[in-house]
Design brief:
This is PAS domain S-box-containing protein/diguanylate cyclase (GGDEF) domain-containing protein. GO terms for molecular function: catalytic activity. There is one protein chain. With about 675 residues, this protein is α+β, with helices and mostly antiparallel strands. Among the domains are: about 100 residues, Beta-Lactamase, CATH 3.30.450.20; about 110 residues, PAS domain (Beta-Lactamase), CATH 3.30.450.20; about 180 residues, 2-Layer Sandwich (Alpha-Beta Plaits). Helices cover about 50% and strands about 20% of the residues. It contains 21 helices and 23 strands. Strands 1, 2, 3, 4, 5 and 6 form a 6-stranded antiparallel β-sheet that branches. A 5-stranded antiparallel β-sheet has the order 8-7-11-10-9, with helices on both faces. The termini are far apart. About 0% of the residues have low confidence.
């Protein structure tokens, strides 16, 4: 049989009642099987995730503990060496380093600096190393001020050309005075530090990564790695959390890359992060194989069931073939009514019911056409933009006024109309429209429409259901341009919550956002910090330079403060020279660093009048939001009290509120250390 004839025969078979019953049975079976497979996949996926996350937790802990031991041993060795060197004269330091030859099993080289950061001895001797200045490096100020061991950011060695880090410890005399540093250079590519990680096997796709707190990758060594692999690690959103101190395990959903299971652990002595990852292709492969086998079993059962039911349906539906043929003739216009000669009462009842409904349908169709003609005339003559939609929500008509408003030459397709609605308003509008279709209630919504001529229009759309003889016929609606009104409302809202001089939030707008942050803290425990500060030495600017110069200083301070904080933070001018900064989702430790940067930035702001230059500083108080805070007044009071104490310390200071336990006090020590 030719292929076209076989295709037509199959099409007719599936258009019959028998074919539809069989097709419906097959579809039902496929849906059931699909649901069962989906449920098996979901529950199996959770079980597989739990098992593999436990495995990753174990692996990450082993890696972290091993690296902790390696780093601690090296730091302890450097501390012992520093204690020995403290007793030696400067001219004997090189000889003492040679006596510590055993340390070269751990380090590529050893160096010693004086209290100013100048290298005064090294071993093995590298030409040009003695005399190097380290005072401007990122590690010298850290060791000098903290007096704790520190591991530097990775750098490329001058002699080897390979990636290295410096492990540094301070040299202190018997009074605790800083004498310099002792540093050991670790080759990241050839040392034993990461050698144990190279033997770890996590399947074909799993891997281990080690990062510094700044996000620089240490293992696999960053020098020579592929850019694609490095980018994949940096794209992990959980890596950013781990760099801030978080550790744990999580399933990372793919966003432009494959999903994976990831575990992070902290290497606290070196301020490093260990990441262990397994791709989902490796994790879910056994579960997928099992479900594929199960699918083929169920498919075989479905085929046997279809053959059996098909034979039974053919026997039962034989009397209906004549009825089916006449219904098809009525549908194609070959006859107007059914005329069955049969002894089956059921078939005669079906035929009578069909004929009655067909007569009612023809009458309703005629009436509907008359109504459509009348409606077309009314809508075409009205100056208001109006449209007509069917019961499925498809636009069937737009009057000339609406097409002119939207810049259209003809009624658009339904898909074109929805695509021209602004993406931020599209989903909500579609949900409300579906609700209107389902309930028959009125549709009322303000939305943005993308107009090719003028950009974005604000429209107010109102649609109502039209009914005839108690039955819904469709929807008729109107659209009005409210762009100018919306723009005016937006301007009024902005002016109500912003300071006209600086463009920052005013007290009203800031307190609303503070209340929202307090509600979030109370509900979910999200940490947030409030900073209140005013400007020191601001009054002379107004008194000597005038209010115009004072206003210029306020504007410049507002600019640098807004530049220094994060995009998610809120900056406000409370009045006069008083400012406030709200740091949502921010720890007190992070807030201290931000306050330090604000203090430095504000101290660099200056205004001039003639030959006179004016500068200001700030006195700031920090207060963390607590879950037990009932109102924002409690938070404001703590921050305000801390600000008064900053003034009392001599201005140009940052004070952390003492309320909330010992942690703020410890944080105040960090603040004082930053400003020393």
């Amino acid at each position: 049989m030719p292929a076209p004839i076989r295709f037509i025969t199959l099409s007719r078979a599936f258009c019959s009642l028998q074919g539809r019953l069989l097709l419906g049975l097959a579809a039902t079976w496929l849906v059931i099987v699909g649901l069962l497979l989906a449920l098996a996949w979901l529950f199996g996926k959770d079980l597989v995730n739990e098992t593999n996350l436990s495995h990753l937790r174990y692996e990450a802990r082993l890696v972290a503990e091993g690296l902790n031991d390696e780093v601690t041993q090296r730091q302890d060795a450097l501390i012992r060496l520093a204690e020995q060197l403290n007793e030696a004269p400067a001219e004997e330091l090189g000889e003492r380093l040679r006596d510590g030859q055993a340390l070269l099993a751990w380090f590529e080289g050893i160096m010693v600096t004086d209290r100013q950061g100048t290298v005064i001895a090294d071993w093995p001797v590298v030409e040009g190393r003695v005399g190097l200045e380290t005072r401007n490096t990122e590690y010298f100020p850290m060791v000098r001020h903290t007096r704790f061991p520190y591991v530097s950011e990775p750098f490329v060695g001058r002699a080897s050309g390979e990636s290295m880090v410096l492990m540094l410890v301070p040299r202190l005399d018997e009074h605790g005075e800083f004498l310099g540093m002792v540093g050991g250079m670790v080759n990241l590519e050839r040392s034993r530090l990461f050698r144990g990680l190279e033997s770890i096997r996590l399947g074909e796709g799993g891997n281990v990564g080690v990062f510094t707190a700044s996000g620089e990758r240490l293992f696999p060594a960053s020098v020579g790695d592929s850019a694609e692999d490095a980018t994949e690690w940096r794209a992990s959103p959980q890596l950013s959390m781990a760099l801030d101190g978080w550790q744990g395990e999580v399933v990372v959903e793919g966003s432009g890359r494959a999903s994976a299971l990831v575990a992070f652990r902290q290497i606290w002595p070196a301020n490093w992060v260990v990441g262990v990852t397994l791709p989902d292709s490796q994790v879910y492969a056994p579960l997928g194989d099992f479900l594929r086998k199960l699918w083929w079993v169920w498919l075989g059962v479905a085929l046997l069931l279809l053959v059996s039911i098909g034979w039974l349906v053919r026997r039962l539906l034989t009397p209906l073939h004549h009825l089916e043929a006449q219904i098809a003739q009525v549908g194609s216009g070959q006859r107007r009514y059914l005329e069955l000669a049969t002894q089956m009462d059921e078939l005669r009842q079906v035929a009578d019911t069909f004929n009655r409904l067909e007569g009612e349908r023809l009458a309703a169709l005629t009436d509907l056409r008359d109504r459509e003609a009348f409606l077309d005339a009314v809508l075409a003559s009205t100056p208001v933009g109006m449209f007509v939609a069917d019961l499925d929500g498809r636009l069937t008509y737009m009057n000339p006024a609406l097409r002119e408003l939207l810049g259209l030459s003809e009624t658009p397709l339904a898909s074109d109309w929805w695509q021209r609605i602004h993406p931020d308003d599209r989903v909500g509008t579609q949900d409300l429209w579906r609700h209107t279709l389902h309930t028959g209630s009125d549709f009322m919504r303000q939305l943005r429409y993308l107009d090719d001529r003028e950009g974005t229009l604000w429209l107010e759309v109102h649609a109502s259901q039209v009914r005839g003889n108690g039955q819904p016929l469709g929807f008729v609606g109107m659209a009005k341009d409210i762009t100018e009104r919306r723009q005016q409302e937006a301007l009024q809202r902005w002016e109500a919550e912003h300071d006209p001089l600086t463009g920052l939030l005013n007290r009203r707008g800031f307190e609303r956002r503070l209340e929202e942050a307090l509600a979030e803290c109370t509900k979910t425990g999200t940490p947030s910090v409030l900073i209140l500060f005013d400007l020191d030495h601001f009054k002379p600017i107004n008194d000597e330079g005038g209010h115009a110069l004072g206003d210029e200083m306020l504007r410049r301070v507002a600019q640098v403060v807004a530049w220094e904080v994060r995009r998610s933070d809120h900056v406000a001018r409370q009045g006069g020279d008083e400012f406030a900064v709200l740091l949502p989702s921010c720890t007190l430790k992070q807030a201290v660093r931000i306050a330090a940067s604000l203090r430095q930035a504000v101290s660099e702001v200056e205004v001039k009048q003639g030959a006179r230059t004016y500068r200001v500083t700030l006195s700031a108080g920090l207060a963390a939001l607590h879950e037990q805070d009932a109102t924002i007044e409690a938070v404001l009071a703590r921050a305000d009290d801390a600000g008064y104490r900053a003034k009392a310390k001599g201005r140009n200071a940052v004070v952390v509120s003492a309320t909330g336990g010992s942690s703020p006090g410890d944080m105040q020590e960090d603040v004082d250390a930053l400003f020393r």
